Each structure stands twice: as structure tokens, then as C-alpha cells.
Amino acid sequence: MIFGVVVFPGSNCDRDVAYVTRDIMGQPTRMIWHQETDITEIDVIVLPGGFSYGDYLRCGAIARFSPIMQQVIEHANQGKLVIGICNGFQVLTEAHLLPGILVKNRDTHFICDRLPLKVERNDLPWTQLYAQDEIITLPVAHGEGQFFASEQTLTEIEGNNQVLFRYVGNNPNGSQNRIAGICNRQGNVLGMMPHPERSADNLVGGTYGLKLFQGLLESVTIRT
């Protein structure tokens, strides 16, 4: 499985993702500059966290127009896997690959913490190594992570079982329905505010996030 990590000006979690996919999991990993336009060999696209283009206008709003994003959209439309983490989630909503938007945290404070999440479904490659309703802990670090959608869109998201991760207990950023991560209807595009790549090595306090990446390899094994 070949991973491609998109690097925008201002990305700062790209190397963290590569450390997991390349160094821990031993999978081929290519760093993709935002101006590239050929990703045909890539199996999984990762839009990492950070501050793409300095978060000017809105988080992810400028990155959405990078040359690479048209290729990412086509990649997703072909049913291939795409994950956006934190700022990457914001980019995916700006590109309309996922519904809703991410706005300023409820208390307008930047949140940097480890938070409990509930795994809402485990029938997708992203979550298949978790137990249904399992409570996991992942790091978060964001100032605009409050998930917001219209009442109709929110009803559709819940009705289509598109919520993969939900905050447990305290709702740190005020996200509607405590949403921490959602997928598209097909399940091949995932956006999440917590950082699984920062919970993939026991040296940094846990490996809950590693299961997400390992599940992708498991899905390939099952298909073959």
C-alpha cells in the first residue's frame, strides 16, 4: 500500500504521518508537494494537520484551490481512500468532499489535550480494528474544530451513519452532536479533528491511533 502525504505551505504534521506509515508500518510513503498533479500510484491520500497557507481567510479555504486538490477529488471520486486530519479535515469540507464546516471553538480558545472518543462504527477500513463503541483517547490541537452543519445536513449525516468518532464527556469545542470525525456516504473519505498519528508509538503515550492506519493494511489483506 502506497501512502501519499500532501504538503501545503504551513503543514506541520506531515512528517508525523510519514513516521507512522513509513517508519512504524514500513509502507512506501511519498511526500506530495501541493503543486503536484500526478498521484496515480497512490493508494491512500493523507491531508495532514497544520496551518495551510497560514489559515488566512478560513482554515483550509486557500488550500482547497491548490493544484493537488483536483487530483485528490478525483482520487476520492474513484472510491480510493482519503483522510484529512485536523487542518486536513477543514480542507476536505472546503473542497466539499465532506459535509459541514469547522468553525472557531465554542470558547474561542485553542485546545491542546488528549480526549476520549467513542468509535461509532467499526465496519469501515478506518475503524475495523476497533471494537464497536470502544472508547479511545487521541490528542487534539485546534482553534477552529467546532463541527457545524445545518439541521438538514446534520440529520442526513446521522441518518447515513457517517459519524465515525464522537467526543465523550466534555464537548471540548462545542461540536454539534459531539462530532469528532465523519466520513462521506461511501466511507472512503474520512475527516477527523483528533490526531491519530500522534498516538501511534508507545514512546509518546499510546497506540490508539495506530489501529486506524493498520486497519487500512488489514483491508487490503482481506481483499486479496
Describe the structure.
The protein has one domain: Rossmann fold (3-Layer(aba) Sandwich), CATH 3.40.50.880. The chain contains five helices and eleven strands; from the N terminus they run E-H-E-E-H-E-H-E-E-E-E-H-E-E-E-H. The protein has helices spanning 14-24, 67-77, 87-94, 151-159, 210-223; strands at residues 3-7, 29-33, 44-47, 81-85, 101-103, 111-119, 135-142, 146-148, 163-167, 179-183, 189-192. It is an alpha/beta fold and 224 residues long. It is 24% helix and 25% strand. Part of the FGAM synthase complex composed of 1 PurL, 1 PurQ and 2 PurS subunits.
* Poorly predicted residue ranges: none
> Mean of residue pLDDT?
93
Say how many strands there are. Answer: 11
CATH C-level: Alpha Beta
Mind telling me which CATH architecture this is?
3-Layer(aba) Sandwich
The CATH topology annotation reads as Rossmann fold
Order of helices and strands: EHEEHEHEEEEHEEEH
Distance between the termini: 12 Å
Bulk shape: globular
Radius of gyration: 16 Å
Helical proportion? Answer: 10-25%
Q: Please state roughly what percent of the residues sit in beta strands, choosing from under 5%, 5-15%, 15-25%, 25-35%, 35-45% or over 45%.
A: 25-35%
Find the structural class using helix and strand composition: alpha/beta
| Largest beta-sheet characterization | 9 strands, mixed
Whole-number total of structural domains: 1
Say which CATH homologous superfamily is assigned.
Class I glutamine amidotransferase (GATase) domain
Tally the helices. Answer: 5
- Output the strand order for the largest sheet: 2-1-3-4-11-10-9-6-7
EC number: 6.3.5.3, 3.5.1.2
Subunit structure: Part of the FGAM synthase complex composed of 1 PurL, 1 PurQ and 2 PurS subunits.
Organism: Richelia intracellularis HH01
Active site: 86, 195, 197
